[in-house]
Amino acid sequence: MSTKLIPSLCPYCAVGCGLYLVVDKGKATGIEYMTEHPTSEGALCPKGNAVLEILNHEERLKYPMKKVGDGFVRISWEEALDMVAQGMTRNIRKHGPGTLGFLASSRCNNEENYLLEKMARLLGSPHVDNCARLCHSPTVVGLGAVFGTGAMTNNLADLENSKCIFAIGTNFTEAHPIVTRWVQKAKDNGAVVIVADPRITSTSWMADIHLRIKPGSDIDLLWGMMKVIVEAGLADWEFIGSRTVGVDELLHSLKDYTLEEAAGKTGVPAGDIIRAAKAYAISPASALLYSMGITQHVCGTDNVKSCATLALLCGHVGRPGAGVWPMRGQNNVQGNCDMGGMPEFYPGYKKSTDLETIEYFKKGWNVSNLPMGPGLTSTEMNDAALKGDLLFMYIIGEDPVVCDANVKKTRQALESLDFLVVQEIFMTPTARMADVVLPAAAWAEKDGSYTSMDRRVQWIDKAVDAPGEAKEGMWIICQIAKRMGLDFPYESAAQVLKEIVRLVPQYKGMTLERISRMGGLRWPCPDEKHPGTDILHTQRFSTPDGKARMATVKNRPPGEDVSPEYPILLTTGRIVLHYNGGSMTLRSESLNEREPELYVEINPMDALNLNVGQGAIVVVTTRRGMAEAKARITEKVKPGMVFMPFHYHGTNIITSDALDPVAKIPEYKIAACRIEAKV
Description:
Layout: E1 3-9, E2 18-24, E3 27-33, H1 46-49, H2 51-55, E4 65-68, E5 71-74, H3 77-95, E6 100-103, H4 110-122, E7 128-129, H5 132-135, H6 137-147, E8 164-168, H7 172-175, H8 179-188, E9 192-196, E10 209-211, H9 218-231, H10 237-243, E11 244-245, H11 247-255, H12 259-266, H13 270-282, E12 286-290, H14 292-295, H15 300-313, E13 323-326, H16 333-338, E14 345-346, E15 350-351, H17 355-365, H18 378-387, E16 392-396, H19 400-403, H20 407-415, E17 419-424, E18 436-439, E19 448-451, E20 456-460, H21 473-483, H22 493-503, H23 512-515, E21 521-522, E22 548-549, E23 568-573, H24 589-592, E24 599-602, H25 604-610, E25 617-622, E26 625-633, E27 641-645, H26 651-654, E28 671-677
Parallel strand pairs: 6-7, 6-16, 8-9, 8-12, 9-10, 11-22, 12-13, 16-17, 17-18, 23-27, 24-26
Antiparallel strand pairs: 1-2, 2-3, 4-5, 4-18, 14-15, 19-20, 20-21, 23-28, 24-27, 25-26, 25-28
């Protein structure tokens, strides 16, 4: 028989669900459920069930193209690669390697991302970043500051062991639907579920306690809970004394903070804060889940630190069912960060500002010079391009013209470049701005490893050929690197993995054979006999002295507030049927027919005042621009607040680009707006 079942992974969120591709005569014709996969157990969300609509889509990019006038013409790979190399060389010679910027892709495998960041640094540019900047950069630096490691402490299946699940700033039933299975198992076993979210969502429907906080008041809620826990004598003083530092500063700051103050700032009744705090503290094993409702604020890093500190205060770290679960967005955003796809870090989270890091990789890569960091973040690259300090960008699998906050500014930045190259599977709005477009293979069309949100590294083999002349990402990167005079002898992803294993401490024991087995391995895995690490920080934290750093932070006001001109607060988020900037799911017929257009949720009281009816087209305006959307009148949002999903091309025209000063993430979650019926 010509039909084969090829093990694969879902290319959407970072849960890392397994599936089988049915391949007949070289074409993927169906999927089968992988019931033995340890995370997904055969389940897939609507996006996972629709993956073939993307893989086999007629709009897949098939040939290299260059910009001619307002359009594109097909060119050979030879010409395309030469043009990219010439664009790099021209700017290096005239202005230095610091004028080059690189965006790695959290949809691509570890091996591709490792090679891209290596090429950037060997060329002398420290400016390499990825989409984590826009979603979970506060996790990397915030959890890193408190625990020593910026990653999920436990694993997804371990949620079943939790007796209290506190979800703050995450609508996981829509953003990560398979996680719901594990939360429901815990709930069936008697766990209390607490959800802190301004909106009524399918996640809040699961809650025993729903805290409808005011957007931007997360630290106030967490401080209120800590105040209750300390005064009620529910803190785990044995854990605090033996495994943490900084509690005295925290207690001093909490001394003058009152529960009434927390209730006033959050809009949550004091009684509910007390119930939530006590439920979380007295549980034998509590899990804290968060996502972009925590990170996408000007105080995103401090929000993350506060989440981690609450867990430490109660001793809910380092045990089954007890820890902190950051819910990551893209299928390989964890791996991209692991591979050094951030300006703050070389691979393995070795700080780019440390001389030891530079010496380590000079020896490991057998080179005489490497750039010190930190380089520019993706948001800072835009500013540098507008100033004329960044002239060349190589973007892989990202669509900043749709995904950045205040995309008008991003478009202006990309227009300011001397040369833009985009490597993609579809002609995205960002790709349409490129001087050269490079057609890439999708996940099922190449070998490589991916790292899910719970640090699980899994290998998949190529199942089908890429369409037309589209090429694997590592082949493209190697061809460009060789044209730039670099020694990139890699002929397979397996060969690149060997180098990763040699140089990235967390991956030392992750041989191809071991991560090819069902479910792979979780890092850290320091040697080939190590079973992988299900739970971090069981004995010590990843800090020099092994102790966690409890954080004392104060809430920072949002980048902008409502006013008479912009009287309504706009927040954004994900919905179950779409993903990221929509470049894939908006092309998926079965998904798009159910959620085809941008909408805005408006409370009935506001709709009455605005004279807006159900289904009416409205114009949502902020200080940055305007977007049209269809009105959905619903009690899901409070009066004075509206919600828009960010997957559609209009939302990020109007979102705020105010930045967290540490992680440099934009404040997508809060913008002041006004709404008017379209005339």
